[in-house]
Amino acid sequence: MAENDFGDIGFKDVIRKSVDAIKWFAKITIHVGDTTTKSFHNVKFLNNNSKIGIRNNVGEYLYVPNYILDMYVTSNPNLLEKLAENILKNKDLKIGTISKNERDEVTISQSKKFIFCKVDTDEELFPELKHGDIVTLEGEVTRQNKTTNNMGFKYLNHILTAYPKNGNIVQYMPLLFLNCKLYGIVSRADDKGNITLIKPKLIFSSL
Length: 207
Fold this sequence. Notes:
The chain is of the alpha+beta class. It has two domains: 11-116, no CATH class; 134-206, CATH 2.40.50. The chain is built from four helices and ten strands. A five-stranded mixed β-barrel has the order 6-7-8-10-9. Strand 6 and strand 7 form a beta hairpin. The protein is globular and about 70 Å long.
């Protein structure tokens, strides 16, 4: 502290600001869906540009203090990895601050754990995507396989297998390696028709 000339700022203030920054790291990461996103497009500004609105893949905006976003861009993507590994089905991770008697906190539940660390293979991936759900997802086409008539669709840092509802995957070849919106249905049915898959498949009607 002395080396950096903190002046009258005490250790307590440094800890408080550190926790506040970590809280915002979690908020931003959950908002954008992964820890590696460091550039943002279609931003908005508030309060004389002191807050920046960053857009996620469903068009929602989170307004972040300017100085916090600067720190986030240079932060270590693995900042919360070790803490997130302790998250279980009935044990969330909460990070919060209290200012002027107002509590501000962010909760990382099991459904968001994969964003911050690797999850065990026996944990259900994207539990919010239920079998039969009609969804619109934004992601990247990473591969296409003419033999199996499917493609890889990178959604929130995970590759999901996607199948066209009708027709051949070849018609979507021009979209390879592009960001796209996928309109389709979630399937957790295995080869025998049992609803057992921990990693969902996507049956899409439009891409």
